[in-house]
Design brief:
Elements: H1 2-28, E1 32-34, E2 40-42, E3 54-61, E4 64-71, H2 76-87, E5 94-98, E6 101-102, E7 119-124, H3 126-171, H4 178-196, H5 203-231
Parallel strand pairs: 3-7
Antiparallel strand pairs: 1-2, 3-4, 5-6, 5-7
Helix pairs in contact: 3-4, 3-5, 4-5
């Protein structure tokens, strides 16, 4: 009998020991909730009717200082969205440190011990700094390409005017010196080489191709004009010589005058 009771007690003790971990695991379960912005945060307990206090936070970003007002029950991720308007950094480019520790987006301010006038350090993400530097170098390269293409475009405009003038002269039957046409072709070819040496992408690449087509069109026009110019016969201008007629003038001598003197005694 004693043995049975001990076994029963033992079973009772075992069952009690078995139920204890299960209740502990239930207590340790953490609930999560999805915020409207798509952020997954730890679910808070039942909200009380007491108003949520607003905190004035001091944000240190390098040598810059900001003062931000935020709810005590807001998350660090929501705080990053507020700082975007102040700093221009996107939330993904920000890292917030409080008490020397980087805070996750889903952590609440009050649960991390943030109080009124607390200091939060903002640091730009190193990967974001590297991306920004790469973007700045890329933009500088594009701007340099635009300036180089613009300079070539202005030179092409001047040479295109000379091509039009040569075409007009030949169409009027005026022969143009062949050296003038050859020199224009060489100048256009130098511009074509200059365009090829410009590294461009995007819109700059389209402008580069456009100027290249203009240069090619001018060269082709000069090749056609060179053939037409060879067929133009030079116009010889002759002038008729006329003898110079000199007019002879007749001169008359004035009549001789004699002076009459009157004598007085």
């Amino acid at each position: 009998m004693m043995k049975r009771r001990s076994n029963a007690n033992g079973r009772a003790r075992d069952s009690a020991n078995n139920t204890t971990p299960s209740s502990t695991s239930v207590d340790e379960e953490v609930a999560w909730e999805m915020r409207p912005g798509g952020m997954l945060v730890q679910k808070r307990g039942e909200k009380s009717d007491a108003p949520t206090p607003n905190l004035r936070l001091r944000i240190a970003f390098g040598a810059l200082r900001y003062e931000i007002s935020a709810s005590a029950q807001s998350t660090f991720g929501e705080l990053k969205k507020v700082l975007t308007a102040e700093t221009g950094l996107q939330p993904g480019e920000q890292r917030l440190l409080f008490r020397g520790k980087e805070r996750e987006n889903g952590e609440y301010l009050d649960m991390c011990g943030v109080k009124d006038r607390s200091k939060v350090v903002l640091v730009e993400d190193p990967a974001s700094i590297e991306r920004r530097a790469v973007e700045m170098r890329r933009n500088a390269k594009i701007q340099a390409a635009h300036r180089a293409i613009l300079d070539v475009s202005r030179e092409v405009d001047k040479l295109a005017e000379q091509v039009s003038a040569i075409e007009k002269s030949i169409s009027n039957g005026v022969k143009v010196p062949e050296l003038q046409i050859t020199t224009l072709i060489e100048m256009l070819m130098r511009l074509a080489i200059k365009l090829d040496n410009i590294s461009a992408e995007g819109d700059a690449s389209a402008q580069k191709n456009l100027q290249g087509k203009r240069v090619q069109k001018c060269v082709e026009s000069l090749d056609v004009l060179k053939i037409s110019n060879a067929k133009v016969k030079p116009v010889v201008v002759t002038t008729k010589w006329e003898p110079v007629v000199t007019t002879k003038w007749e001169t008359f001598d004035p009549p001789a005058t004699t002076a009459q003197w009157e004598f007085f005694d």
